[in-house]
């Protein structure tokens, strides 16, 4: 925004310059002779004559035009200075960052302490409360530090025990589940552990529960075969293909025909169904069995060798 005082100053200067042009125009028109004589007389004696009688507001059409010319010229000078000047931030040449005050920090807090992400002793970021745009921050946080800098102890563990959401924790040191798992269990959480180093401490994982189509089965078996070959190992391709065919047949049989016993949760859910819903469930299960029969039986182990070429 342009400065009001500076604009007023240049406006007054424009009026003064316009009035000076007006007086000189009147003096020029009052002289006799050709244009050269008039200009010579004006340059030699015009200043003295203006000082002798400075006030003359008898405007003519010509003098009014020169008055406007002088005023507009000064306004153009003002616009040039204002629009062309650089914006300097004196005192903040090295940046304006500073530590926030306690009042400013509280603007990012939530109504409940347990629903906040703890960033520091007195700095928190709400997860649930809706904030105005200027205080609504992205919830993704990256903590960077060397070994022993406190990434786990000072950030991960305090926010885990907030217990305000579900958590997926990648723990290479394998100690967070031991130190926080019991607390989660006491508060009704389901704790699942996938330990690929010590499988005795790991929960089971059944990939067949996630197979719905033949493409899903093919992708799962491809991953299985690629990760069981061993690096640098070589064998007869015939036996590789034969083993792949056998495993694929067994896996397909499990997907299509094996009905695992129902869990307690499934039995409880079925007991809550109405008579009509239960009948629909039975019809759907019967239809699935009939569709499986239409696919035909799987070849016996002796017949598989005949199919391999």
On the 0 to 100 scale, the average pLDDT is: 80
Q: How many β-strand runs?
A: 2
Radius of gyration: 44 Å
Q: Which word captures the global form?
A: elongated
Number of helices: 11
Order of adjacent strands in the largest pleated sheet: 1-2
Please provide the ordered H/E string of secondary-structure elements: HHHHEEHHHHHHH
Which structural class matches the secondary elements? mainly alpha
Distance between the termini: 85 Å
Share of helix, binned: 40-55%
Query: Major β-sheet, in short?
Result: 2 strands, antiparallel
Amount of beta strand: under 5%
Low-pLDDT stretches = none
Oligomer: single chain
Compute the number of structural domains. Answer: 3
Transmembrane segments: 7-28, 63-81
Keywords: Coiled coil, Membrane, Transmembrane, Transmembrane helix
Coiled coil: 264-295
Protein name: Conjugal transfer protein TraG
Report on this model:
- Pfam families: T4SS-DNA_transf.
- This is Conjugal transfer protein TraG.
- Keywords: Coiled coil, Membrane, Transmembrane, Transmembrane helix.
- InterPro entries: P-loop_NTPase (IPR027417), TraG/VirD4 (IPR003688).
- It comes from Streptococcus mitis.
- The mean pLDDT is 80.
- Helix content is 53%, strand content 3%.
- A hairpin with a 2-residue loop joins strand 1 and strand 2 (123-126).
- The two termini are 85 Å apart.
- The chain has helices at residues 4-30, 35-52, 61-84, 102-105, 151-160, 176-186, 214-226, 237-257, 264-271, 275-294, 301-307; strands at 116-120, 123-126.
- It is mostly helical.
- Strands 1-2 form a two-stranded antiparallel sheet.
- It has 3 domains: 4-84; 104-201, no CATH class; 207-307, no CATH class.
- Helix 1 packs across helix 2.
């Amino acid at each position: 925004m342009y400065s009001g005082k500076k604009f007023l100053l240049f406006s007054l200067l424009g009026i003064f310059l316009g009035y000076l042009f007006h007086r000189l125009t009147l003096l020029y028109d009052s002289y006799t002779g050709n244009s050269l004589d008039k200009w010579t007389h004006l340059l030699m004696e015009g200043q003295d004559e203006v000082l002798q009688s400075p006030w003359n507001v008898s405007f003519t059409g010509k003098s009014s035009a020169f008055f406007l010319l002088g005023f507009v010229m000064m306004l153009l000078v003002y616009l040039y200075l204002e629009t062309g000047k650089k914006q300097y931030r004196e005192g903040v040449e090295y940046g304006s960052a500073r530590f926030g005050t306690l009042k400013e920090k509280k603007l990012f807090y939530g109504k409940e302490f347990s629903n906040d992400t703890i960033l520091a002793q007195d700095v928190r970021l709400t997860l649930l409360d809706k904030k105005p745009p200027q205080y609504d921050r992205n919830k993704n946080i990256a903590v960077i530090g060397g070994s022993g800098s406190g990434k786990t102890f000072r950030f991960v563990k305090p926010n885990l025990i907030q217990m305000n959401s579900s958590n997926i924790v990648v723990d290479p040191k394998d100690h967070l589940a031991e130190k926080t798992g019991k607390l989660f269990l006491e508060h009704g959480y389901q704790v699942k552990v996938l330990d690929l180093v010590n499988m005795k401490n790991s929960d089971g994982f059944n990939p067949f529960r996630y197979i719905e189509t033949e493409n899903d089965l093919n992708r799962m078996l491809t991953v299985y075969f690629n990760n069981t070959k061993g690096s640098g190992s070589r064998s007869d391709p015939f036996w590789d293909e034969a083993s792949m065919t056998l495993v694929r047949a067994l896996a397909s049989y499990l997907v299509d025909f094996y009905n695992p016993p129902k869990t307690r949760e499934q039995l409880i859910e079925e007991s809550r169904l109405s008579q009509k819903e239960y009948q629909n469930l039975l019809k759907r299960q019967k239809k699935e069995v009939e569709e499986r029969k239409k696919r035909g039986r799987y070849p016996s182990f002796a017949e598989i060798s005949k199919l391999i070429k």
